[in-house]
Amino acid sequence: MCPPADQTNGVTKDEMVPIDNSNTPHIPPPTNETNGKSEPPPVKSHKGVYGRASDFLSNTSNWKIIESTLREGEQFANAFFTLEKKIEIAKMLDEFGVEYIELTSPAASPESRAHCEAICKLGLKRTKILTHIRCHMDDARLAVETGVDGVDVVIGTSSFLREHSHGKDMTWITKTAIEVIEFVKSKGIEIRFSSEDSFRSELVDLLSIYRTVDKIGVNRVGVADTVGCADPRQVYDLVRTLRGVVSCDIETHFHNDTGCAIANAYAALEAGATHVDTSVLGIGERNGITPLGGLIARMMVADPEYVKSKYNLSMLREIENCVAEAVEISVPFNNYITGFCAFTHKAGIHAKAILANPSTYEILNPADFGMTRYVSIGHRLTGWNAVRSRVDQLNLNLTDDQVKDATAKIKELADVRTQSMEDVDMILRIYHTGIHSGELKVGQSAVLDKLLDKHMPSRETSPSRANGANGTPAKRPRVEETA
Ligand SMILES: [Zn+2]
């Protein structure tokens, strides 16, 4: 079974201040107010001061996902999906709202064929089902019998694949493609024709075969960076050129070997592509393809209202946890949107600004994804504004000078070991009691030490560390104040 949706991937909530949705019993319920000030309205456009005039080719506000966790993802080293798990993932992706899911070819194995047929019978609400086959009539015949909504046909067109893989020339490829496409079309379902290793194929060959298959009526042509060699400018140039040659939709598939999979997908959409292949957490052959969550993060910046209108974004974490568990990996600490520190603010300067207006240091709003923002305060880089916020949440009556004085003590203690949220609260309460009983005055560090020794005898224990994801000790980061 999948972990619960509220799993935090091991985040150490103890040492952080939840700004939006605190569920700590003695903390006031979530509000949009910080320090009694109303939060400014969220920033509507993220395009920034360098936004370009809209490009007539751009589809960054008009695109679709072909989710390939159950095809490309099956090629991930750790993946072995049972039918039960495939059904669970397919239903989640349907609920999330992806336009298509792509399944392993029924020609791959008898089980693959049975799984494909079973998923087609699920009656998914929003998501169309595709299967991915070689450009071969035997595979095409099997595929159309499974009940899929469409077939994705692929064939290698680069000289590497023509010489060392299937050994066919472009004339044979074109002839076979026409035969397969006309057969699939005759069954009344969608058909995509894609080259493999497109960026190492001859442009003349590519454009020639795409023009041919477009004329005979494919729904989409596909561009695939099978080896992950392309960069965004190459992608933009190829897709823009292709956009001028075909009238059908353009699907794109980017491997992440050199870290460009999300940027390449974005460049493709800017150049007029219409569909992007993704997988959950990016799992796939080698180090995988454009991750679903990463693409969503990128596209939210381009057009948040469009993305929010299409997808059930609060499901993202649940889907990722489910797939991570199925393939026995952790969600990476720096994952887009759902990584355990994706919305955690630490440096004092950042914390102050975030408390005033989250848009200062956040391009994505965690609430859009059912996530929560945290300001970490129990560390040596903390600032008095963040501590002031906590003092207010705790309903303690301290002046700014007193908060600054308490903050100095928190920083001093945090130089020995990171202070948990409980520790910080206790220090603040003891400070508050000391001030109001007359035992303590601002600047009396030694007196405060005595009070802390009396009420927190265990505070001088050996240095401890925050736990990272999955309970493993995380190295305490050296964070510069303004980084
Ligand atoms: Zn691939």
Automatic annotation (TrEMBL):
Q: What class of enzyme is it?
A: transferase
Its pathway is: Amino-acid biosynthesis; L-lysine biosynthesis via AAA pathway; L-alpha-aminoadipate from 2-oxoglutarate: step 1/5
Annotated GO biological processes are: lysine biosynthetic process via aminoadipic acid
**GO (cellular component) term, any one:** mitochondrion
Known SUPFAM superfamilies for this protein? Aldolase
The record places domain Pyruvate carboxyltransferase at 63-317
Q: Which cofactor does it need?
A: Mg(2+); Mn(2+)
State which Enzyme Commission number(s) the record gives.
Answer: 2.3.3.14
Keyword annotations of the record: Amino-acid biosynthesis, Lysine biosynthesis, Magnesium, Manganese, Metal-binding, Transferase
Enumerate composition-biased segments (Polar residues): 1-11, 459-470
Q: Which Gene3D superfamilies match?
A: 1.10.238.260, Aldolase class I
Question: Which residues does the annotated region (Disordered) include?
Answer: 1-47, 456-483
GO MF terms here are: homocitrate synthase activity; metal ion binding
What catalytic activity is recorded?
acetyl-CoA + 2-oxoglutarate + H2O = (2R)-homocitrate + CoA + H(+)
The entry sums up its family as follows:
Belongs to the alpha-IPM synthase/homocitrate synthase family. Homocitrate synthase LYS20/LYS21 subfamily.
What name appears for this protein in its UniProt entry?
homocitrate synthase
Source organism per UniProt = Papiliotrema laurentii (Cryptococcus laurentii)
